[in-house]
Design goal:
The chain is an alpha+beta fold. It is built from 8 helices and 7 strands; from the N terminus they run βαβαααββββααβαα. The strands form 2 sheets. A 5-stranded antiparallel beta sheet has the order 2-3-4-1-7, covered by helices on one side. Strands 5-6 form a two-stranded antiparallel ribbon. The longest helix is centred in the last third of the chain and has 19 residues. It is globular and about 65 Å long.
Length: 258
């Protein structure tokens, strides 16, 4: 899950968002790009900032200490970030002609458990889905500290240069202020996985075994990101490829000579 922090920038700061909500400006930008590969569409994502960050405040929090030892060791690894920030995303919080800087804050390791339940016996009725966002104390601490640290980052001289005001952000930097903003604005993002997680047969919540076979069901496997037992702290393409290759090797091995 994640959210955005948006600052309104000085009118002369950049042109990158000038065409997003203007059909006429967008059409002109497309013509300029098609004709000579220049204009707003030529550099929109070039200055984008992406960072995966750890947080000493999270690692020293009571919520972290309350986790089991194995989880604490996993989260403490140097290659395990606590959160991600991404800049230069389109935003609906600001309208032209104002310029803005939008910074997304993403929390890649949610520990709360959601649920999917039937709403009725009619297969045409949609299920009742509860993602369980922020239901775990550690998830709330990660959200609070990552937003607070990103706000501090946006106040640094180079980032604050040309910034006029916040168009989207918490009312203050106290825990309650930040958590209220998170609850109000955070949404699920692009890295959906873990809904049919792999695990040992006796493990709570395990749906498929090490061979990708659905527990308790014959002749059915699941081979995609839904079998991941946790959300990787990275973009998922490489993980998805590895899952597919591993499953393919297992299936070929099981059927050799048949």
């Amino acid at each position: 899950m994640g959210l955005e922090l948006v600052t309104v920038q000085d009118p002369g700061s950049h042109h990158r968002t000038s065409y997003i909500d203007s059909p006429l400006a967008l059409e002109q930008a497309r013509k300029e790009w098609t004709k000579n590969k220049s204009g707003p569409l030529s550099d929109y994502y070039l200055p984008q900032m992406i960072a995966y960050l750890k947080s000493d405040k999270i690692l020293s929090s009571k919520e972290f200490e309350d986790l089991d030892a194995q989880t604490r060791q996993f989260l403490g690894e140097k290659t395990k970030p606590m959160y991600e920030i991404v800049s230069q995303n389109p935003s609906t919080s600001v309208k032209s002609p104002e310029r803005y800087l939008s910074t997304a804050v993403a929390f890649p390791g949610n520990y709360g458990t959601g649920s999917v339940k039937l709403s009725s016996s009619d297969v045409k009725d949609p299920p009742v889905i509860d993602p369980g966002f922020l239901s775990h104390p550690f998830d709330r601490r990660v959200a609070i500290e990552s937003v607070r640290e990103t706000l501090d980052f946006l106040k640094q001289p180079l980032m604050a240069k040309g910034s006029l005001r916040f168009a989207a952000g918490p009312e203050g930097e106290a825990d309650d202020d930040i958590l209220t903003y998170v609850r109000k604005t955070a949404i699920s993002m692009w890295h959906a996985c873990g809904t049919v997680k792999m695990g040992k047969p006796e493990e709570p919540g395990a749906c498929v075994d090490k061979d990708f076979k659905v527990v308790g069901v014959q002749s059915l496997r699941v081979v995609d990101m839904s079998v991941a037992p946790f959300l990787p702290s990275a973009h998922l393409q490489a993980v998805a490829y590895l899952i597919g290759e591993t499953a393919a090797e297992k299936i070929i091995s099981e059927n050799e000579g048949s």
